[in-house]
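Fold Annotation — chain and its backbone
Encoding — discrete vocabulary of local shapes
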Amino acid sequence: MEKLLISACILGASSRYDGKSKKCLTERDLGRLIDNYELVPFCPEIYGGLPTPRTPSERVGDAVLMKDGKDVTENYKKGAMEAKRLCELLGIKKALLKERSPACGKDRIYDGSFTGVLTPRHGVAAELLIESGISVYGDSEIEMLFDDE
């Protein structure tokens, strides 16, 4: 069965910055994922060494900064590298990631102003996975994982 890297928070893990989950899958979608993929939950922020809960972070240029100004870019890069390594190790070709996140966001993430404004850009892990040839889907694109059903 094909493996799918998936943001742990959308499966219900309390791995987000606020210590909560962001379970956004319907029971139907979760069932379809389980029927079609071997799910591999992952959180780049945690694998990058950040605690839960933690101060919110956003991408600012090439850096990732916490709301209090602390630079956590290296943590995000480390988490992204771990995601890539896991995909290589397990032969993972697809990832379903939490949108808008500075790590997992695909296509649009918060702009670094901490005001809820989105900008067209990928999160650090999503960007590295895409560059590495992994097909990355945001959580609103789940239907694309079932196109051949």
Summary: Strands lie at 3-7, 38-42, 57-60, 63-66, 94-97, 108-110, 118-120, 135-138. Residues 1 and 134 are 17 Å apart (CA to CA).
